[in-house]
């Protein structure tokens, strides 16, 4: 059985200077209740790893707007003008990766690999400062694994053993991030006693804490 905690308790685990992974594609499959509580804590100097920074008044975007994030590792910020403004003013450092590269860096961490090779970005500024490996005449950028102190992920249904199931595209980055952080917190839309094994996408072994969205 996994420890079931409130969203407030989950947010209190995260301290100044932490690196957090936050699942979701825009506002689809995001642990919004935990993020709302994290905004209330006013924890500072976070590094946030995410597919995007959502919208300025939604979930991940609230952390940006509230000046709690000093670095973002992401694939795009175009839906959140506040992120762009803070990047250009020097308030936030933004490190961009192609989406496939970002998720493979996370996969590498979760799988215990030493890194990944990708041809994406060869001949562009993405290769600046990176190790280039040539195999059979083709060049690849070597990308190191990417992990975090905490992963804040979403689950459509979660059982008390921590097994997680998803509906549709809500799984997005959540499945990869669950394997690549020291502490993983899942927000469950529905908490159940035991999932059907055929439903399980993330095995409970990866989950440390469960937050039931329907309970304060």
Molecular structure report:
With 216 residues, this protein is of the alpha/beta class. The chain has a single domain, classed as Glutaconate Coenzyme A-transferase, CATH 3.40.1080. The chain has 6 helices and 12 strands. It has helices at residues 7-12, 32-41, 59-65, 81-88, 99-111, 174-177, and strands spanning 3-5, 19-22, 46-49, 69-74, 93-96, 116-118, 132-135, 138-143, 148-159, 164-165, 181-192, 209-212. Strands 1, 2, 3, 4, 5, 9, 10, 11 and 12 form a 9-stranded mixed sheet that branches. It has a 3-stranded antiparallel sheet with strand order 6-8-7. The model has no long low-confidence stretch (mean pLDDT 96).
For this entry, give a set of tags:
single chain; 216 residues; alpha/beta; Glutaconate Coenzyme A-transferase; 9-stranded mixed beta sheet; 3-stranded antiparallel beta sheet; 6 helices
Layout of strands and helices, then pairs:
Layout: E1 3-5, H1 7-12, E2 19-22, H2 32-41, E3 46-49, H3 59-65, E4 69-74, H4 81-88, E5 93-96, H5 99-111, E6 116-118, E7 132-135, E8 138-143, E9 148-159, E10 164-165, H6 174-177, E11 181-192, E12 209-212
Parallel strand pairs: 1-12, 2-3, 2-9, 3-4, 4-5, 9-11, 11-12
Antiparallel strand pairs: 6-8, 7-8, 9-10
Helix pairs in contact: 2-3
Give a concise summary.
The chain is an alpha/beta fold and 216 residues long. The chain is built from six helices and twelve strands.
**According to CATH, what is the class?**
Alpha Beta
Query: What class, by secondary structure content?
Result: alpha/beta
- At the fold tier of CATH, the topology name is Glutaconate Coenzyme A-transferase
Radius of gyration: 17 Å
**Poorly predicted regions:** none
Largest sheet: 9 strands, mixed
- In whole angstroms, the N-to-C terminal distance is 20 Å
CATH evolutionary superfamily = Glutaconate Coenzyme A-transferase
The beta-strand count equals 12
